[in-house]
Specification:
heterodimer; A: mainly alpha; ABC transporter involved in vitamin B12 uptake, BtuC; two-stranded antiparallel ribbon; 14 helices; 4 strands; globular; B: alpha/beta; Rossmann fold; 6-stranded mixed β-sheet; 4-stranded antiparallel β-sheet; 10 strands; 25% strand; ABC_transp_permease (chain A); Branched-chain amino acid ABC transporter permease (chain A)
Chain lengths: 309, 256
Amino acid sequence: MDTFVLLTLTGFGLGALYFLIASGLALIFGLMDVLNFAHGAFLTVAAYTAWATADAVSGMGGLLLAALVGTATGVALAVAVEFVLIRRLYGRPKEQILVTVGLSLAVPAAVQTLAGADARTFPVPDALAGTVGVLGAQVPVNRFALIGVALAVLIGVRLFLDRTRYGLVVRAGVEDRAMVTALGVDVTRAFTVVFALGGALAGLAGVLGGLYFGSLSPHQGTGLLVFAFVVVVIGGLGSLTGVALAALAVGLTQQYANYYAGGYGDLAVVALLAAVVLARPVPGAPRAAERLRRLLPAPPAARTEGGRA
Amino acid sequence: MNAAVPPPPLLEIAGLHAEIAGSRVLQGVGFTVPAAGVTALLGRNGVGKTTTVRAVLGLLPDGGRVTAGTVTLAGEDITGEPTHVTVRRGVGYAPEDRGVFAQLTVAENLKLAERPGSAHHYDLVHDLFPELRARRAQRAGSLSGGQQQMVAIARTLLNDNRLVIVDEPTKGLAPRVVTEVAEVLQRASHRVPLLLVEQNLALVRRLARDAVVLDAGRTVHTGPAAELLADRELTTALLGVGARPGHATTPSGGAA
């Protein structure tokens, strides 16, 4: 029982991490059809700047400052990448993928050159270093910190989407971007905001990843990104809550399978992905009906009219 | 006669050519929309009516572009301008498939259409469409086709526009709803000039002052709507109604 509780809460913590990365990916893809493979690189760089901060300033204050620095790093990188590269490549998915995949390879390599390939220990303040007894299990405190932050982000981003004009533009743009521009809205500006938000969440995930794993390495972000993509595919682009639930499912599956199925956690996630994709109704179906309707002849009113003319 | 200078056209399209995915959909569309009344854009299915209005708005689908010609709105060249810039000049657009955001509520659909720097005529919209006020919290995707069309038209009337483009507003609607839409468009046309793409000739007769006919991507006729509709031979030849369609003739070189 105590093992199960530990696995569950650890899975929640991991899910929280996936959610932070995947929610940004989902918003960016949903609004602009941009697959941002560089998202993991944002996370890695943010983790290193956060580490440098937490290393210089110790204690809880240091961690909070590190979280701030990491988030700001994510925002700065995201805005720079969007402004310099992505903006020039709207509507050119192949070029976008080449550029963001290139960044996802180059940035970790640069980090490795600057900071070395060895993993570094992330300084965890004493308040978050211990464990708490939950139903007989000794659960690391940082798991609760991750879950708390992810919940706060979920609520915060939902409020942003539901209550602000940018949120309205984003929700509408995910459905039909062209129609949003046809109402006089400059979607590219909303997209910069979404990209910055995604960068902020990736940066925050970099800090929390350091906390969760207790260490950081140049390829941490890229490794996590793979699972974040799985979460986006399972959770869909329609709702942030869907992404959160998918993140939870992936985190828990990975933890349970790693322990109970002999370390096959990653494989179990892929199996979950396959099962969800295969069980999902074909999204093309209603579109086919729509195409059929367009092929049908003009309404009879147009025909009879000629007779009376 | 006195030298009364005719008012300049509100919208002027000249020699417009457009390609979509390599196929030349428009090959010389030219006409003007006067600053008052309803101008009907007519033609059989697939002659380029929707492509024309999308080209005016810079909304051609991926792989589509204007290859020649100009679009002028109130004397200013808007050819190839980003869509949102054109729309902010005061152009309202209700597209063929209505373009209603299904996941958003009716109120949110209208709110999204609020343009900064313009008055927002909610009183007018709620007067024209009392049902939309009652259903303001409902998701637009759960509305009937007619109600969705009301949302689409309401969005164009919310702001102060110089021109409203409505693409096939009665397509797929029940006859009773078509009548409602026609009434709304008639009232709207007293406030703002309309460019109306429509297949329903009864509606065109009721609303339109001017008519433009396209065939195979070209303008083949322009003139008063009443004259066109009264000429049975012409409507048969141009629109293929009342007789076997197929043999398209070009009775008047209407390219303006």
